[in-house]
Design brief:
- This protein is mainly alpha-helical.
- It has a domain at 2-7 and 78-230 and 238-325.
- The protein is 60% helix and 0% strand.
- It has helices at residues 2-7, 10-19, 29-43, 51-65, 76-107, 114-124, 132-149, 155-166, 169-183, 191-203, 208-229, 242-249, 257-269, 292-299, 303-343.
- Helix 5 runs antiparallel to helix 6, helix 6 (114-124) runs antiparallel to helix 7 and helix 11 packs across helix 12.
Length: 401
């Protein structure tokens, strides 16, 4: 946990200090770290104790709040992993109805923008679904919903999802705001989307005044960022697509730690996993609309405990991201070494040239000689074979990709 905290940048630490009540955070990362560290110790009544003792107590307290049984002798990394997986699993369950609602609003808009909107929603969900494999599975579900609802009225299918959202008032404004913001990738909220939005609000028993307020908030933020994205006469920077730029920034004003976490994750993995679509320039586009803030508040009625769980979860994610990135880098380095050794393997001697006075018979072309197989010390290595350790503690972490 403390390793993850030490990996946070000044912006992330400042956001945490705001969460715990510091209205004007200092600029120094070291001071910010000390403020957060001291708050963690005070929250679990371990102020003045060694960092290892505070860390263990914070983790065990959070596990208890989450009703996770921790057997005696449980390794700290196993405890952190249990917390990460359990919180992520519960967050997905909590947010799934909201994501379905967003899919309906997405499908009601222009079809050629569906994939781009889902890319943005997937990025918003990255803190709730930190595993790329798990996100891929969730994306398949969203693709299927959008395919179905692009041609049919989604209201019947949405009924169980809307019932779940109806019981979670803290999630209603959040997912409606996200759905409308994504719809603005079309340049405006079209009539089919507007009609569907009103039907959804009616089902959720959100009055016309409240639904208009949500829509106005999204629209105002959108145009604010749209105008800011327009090129100026003397400005050197030119925005090729101000509509998309504005849509991506529309709800950034919601702020929040989750947006910073998503941005940091994108930057960390951008050069390590090129097979994923690059998301350069998408930082903070959904602000706090990952749904994680209302999720923690719903799980913990005591706001201090909700903040504690939120901070712990993000430190564990930060730590795991760094270890996964190190594993990818080690894997790439190992493959590079093995490829170099294969290239240096001896090549077969060329066949002797025929005598000059004789015409050589035609010879069928031969396939190129494959690289020599790895020797006993050159075993093909996969990510699952790697053991990556935290340098600060010497502890090892099981990877969840």
């Amino acid at each position: 946990m403390y390793t993850g905290l030490s990996l946070m940048n000044a912006q992330e630490l400042a956001e945490i200090t705001r969460l715990i009540g510091v209205q004007e955070p200092p600029e120094s990362p070291d001071v910010l770290f000390d403020i957060v560290s001291g708050w963690l110790a005070r929250t679990v009544k371990k102020e003045g104790r060694a960092q290892e003792e505070v860390e263990r107590c914070v983790l065990e307290s959070t596990a208890q709040l989450w009703r996770i049984i921790v057997p005696d002798g449980t390794d700290t990394n196993d405890l952190e992993r249990a917390l990460r997986l359990k919180i992520a699993q519960d967050a997905v369950e909590f947010l799934t109805p909201g994501w379905a609602l967003c899919c309906a609003l997405i499908a009601s808009g222009q079809r050629n923008n569906i994939d781009l909107k889902l890319d943005m929603m997937e990025n918003a969900a990255s803190t709730a679904v930190p595993s790329s494999r798990a996100r891929a599975a969730k994306r398949e579900e969203w693709n299927e919903l959008c395919r179905r609802w692009a041609d049919t009225d989604p209201m019947t299918d949405l009924e169980p999802f809307l019932q779940a959202i109806k019981e979670r008032e803290e999630l209603q404004s959040e997912c409606l705001t996200l759905g409308l913001a994504l719809s603005l990738l079309d340049g405006s909220i079209g009539f089919p989307t507007e009609r569907l939005y009103r039907s959804i609000c009616d089902e959720l028993e959100i009055g016309r005044g409240a639904s208009d307020e949500i829509k106005k908030k999204v629209s105002d933020l959108y145009w604010k960022h749209h105008n800011a994205a327009q090129p100026t006469q003397d400005g050197e920077e030119r925005m090729a697509d101000p509509i998309r730029t504005a849509a991506r920034r529309t709800v950034y004003d919601a702020g929040a730690l989750e947006a910073l976490a998503a941005e940091a994750r994108q930057e960390l993995f951008a050069s390590l996993m090129p097979e994923e679509k690059p998301k350069t320039g998408w930082s903070k586009f959904v602000g706090g609309l990952s749904g994680m803030s209302p999720f923690f508040s719903s799980k913990m009625k005591n706001e201090t405990y909700a903040t504690l769980a939120r901070v712990v979860y993000h430190t564990i994610l930060k730590q795991h991201d760094a270890v996964v990135a190190a594993a990818h880098q080690a894997h790439a380095n190992m493959q590079s070494v093995l490829s170099g050794r294969a290239a240096e393997a001896p090549k077969p001697a060329p066949a002797p040239k025929p005598q000059a006075q004789e015409e050589a018979p035609p010879v069928a072309p031969t396939a190129p000689t494959p690289p020599a197989p790895p020797g006993p010390d050159q075993k093909a290595v996969g990510l699952s074979d790697l053991m990556v350790e935290e340098k600060q503690s010497g502890r090892s972490i099981k990877l969840d990709l």
